[in-house]
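INFO  loader      accepted 1 record
INFO  loader      residues=145
INFO  predictor   begin
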Amino acid sequence: MKTLSYLLSLLLLSACSTTALSSPIVIYNQGENFYPVQIDRHENNKQSRARESQSNVTVLYKGQAMQAVNSHAKGILTGVILVKATDQKSALLIPALQATAMGKDFVLLSFDEETDLYSMLIEIKKRADVETAEIEVNTRRRKPR
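INFO  predictor   done
INFO  writer      dumping tokens
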């Protein structure tokens, strides 16, 4: 199943823009594939404009900007990895800043800004007690009322 998901990601990448092709990392979250983008901020008339630029990002950190492969959805990495485990007690022992049990099989692992989330995701997926794991991408920006 993981191999099929990876092959589908590669197929989707071959059909998308050069910005996505320049990034070696694609993650799956909320039914979409995301790749990291680099954001350049420039002040102009008291407004911040963000311009995507090509990026050869090979690590993912909390706060990293992400772009969906097949849609205009953009998001930010929250620093959380959601894990579905066969043994929740042993999954809670995965080294993280904070581990929270959710329901019967799920564990939320929170990491700080210095932790490479992509390498952690790879290590977590190698564990025998882990069924699936994915890095959370926040695509819903809260707007003040």
